[in-house]
Amino acid sequence: MSTENSMIWQKRMPTQLVENRVCFAGPHAELSIYDTYEQAQKVSLKADALLYCGMVTGSKVMHTEFQKDISFLPHESFILAPEQEVFIDFPEAQLETPTTCLTVEISKERVAQICDRMNDILAQSLPAGTVIDPNQPLHTLHTQATQQVLDRLTSDFIQNDPDRDLLVDFGVNELVTRILRHHGRDALLHFTLNVPDANGLTSVLHWIEQNLALPLDAEKLAKIACMSRSRFYDSFKRQMGCTPLEYQHQRRMNRAYQRLQEHCSVTEISYEVGYVSLSHFSRRFHKHFGLSPKQVVAKQVAPKVVDSKLM
User: Could you tell me how far CA 285 lies from the centroid of its own chain?
Assistant: First the structure.
């Protein structure tokens, strides 16, 4: 290469590595992995389709038209509706320790197909006239089960497997189902707060919510629901996607997370949600979220409100 051409090349080289994006296309979806190497403010993000965002390392601060200064940390989900714009701050990004996140853009057609099926399943438990609306923004801490789906889906996108497209499609379906189940459960919980005795299921959910520290009595719950024990369990699992015990555990963990955000002591929170043993509570919390209670406190970068729901 001549000296002149070499100088031209050097002038065209980027002087700063601000962000690197890697994309992987799949059926009805696209995975993007972002590494941000420099602090930045108010970076715009918007997509034509439903956009699932998940943090990998570091933290971001999100600003939507509905809420400002939302801290976004690893093990949290942030879902944007099609055409919804979010502005992002990167307070921690550095060349040596980049902020890494991933997004999964999911086609409107695939979301609509799964949404129709979920509405059919949840029709009996949701308030009359209420349907799941995936076009609502959602920010929540997700469980280990959802994290495993994300890890598996990312691996399926990246690896050159002969069944790659089929595996990606399965993973996208599961992720969308969890998102929609979350929206449906959110609608039901809000309805339960206002009309706790609307039906057998809302009565049971209200009792569990008001008595998180108490052990579950299957016979008592069945009586509250005005059902036989076997019918109650079948109905609960079909409508909620889990058993009453699993649901209570999810609500306990979410309550514990909320209380940690309020800077309550771990010991106090442990008793409040029904655990006599602090070590047992810490183990269950870590297994559920992938973080210990102390790590949750340490990772707070800004005050925020956590949704009363879990994926």
Answer: 16
